[in-house]
From TrEMBL:
Domain spans labelled DUF7674: 10-113
Taxonomic source organism: Paenibacillus polysaccharolyticus
Pfam families reported for this sequence: DUF7674
Taxonomy, superkingdom: Bacteria
Protein name (record): DUF7674 domain-containing protein
Length: 125
């Protein structure tokens, strides 16, 4: 079995319903590619929850996890959060604005840094 990154290990502890998708990912790539796993499976599900545009406990749980990663996890885990999850969430202004309702202080700070870095720091955000 491939070694799980810290973010994957922590994520699967909180969200065991993703274990089958994770195992399929390992089977497909013969290793863990956390950016791919989180991009293909996790971020897509988070975006689907945000599209509901109604306060939902699933989104609260995702963003609480992201806040923990933003505050306490290793550098690689924070890179997955910023470059894979937060960047993609920022691709759609409607999704981005909905996500902001759930972001904790540190997640919001990282998101703002991402948006500034890639040039999406206009006043409409």
């Amino acid at each position: 079995m491939a070694h799980k990154s810290e973010i994957s290990r922590l994520f699967l502890e909180v969200f065991p319903e993703f274990e089958a998708a994770y195992q399929e990912h390992i089977s497909e790539y013969n290793e863990e590619l956390a950016h791919v796993f989180f991009g293909d499976h996790v971020t897509s599900e988070v975006i689907n929850q945000l599209k509901l545009e109604a306060f939902n406990s699933k989104a609260v749980k995702y963003f609480a996890f992201f806040e923990d990663i933003a505050k306490e996890a290793d550098l690689y885990s924070r890179q997955v959060l910023t470059t894979t999850i937060l960047t993609r969430i920022g691709d759609d202004i409607t999704i981005f604005k909905e996500a902001q309702k759930y972001m904790g202080e540190r997640t919001r700070q990282l998101s703002d840094e991402v948006e500034l870095l890639i040039g999406r720091n206009d006043t409409t955000r």
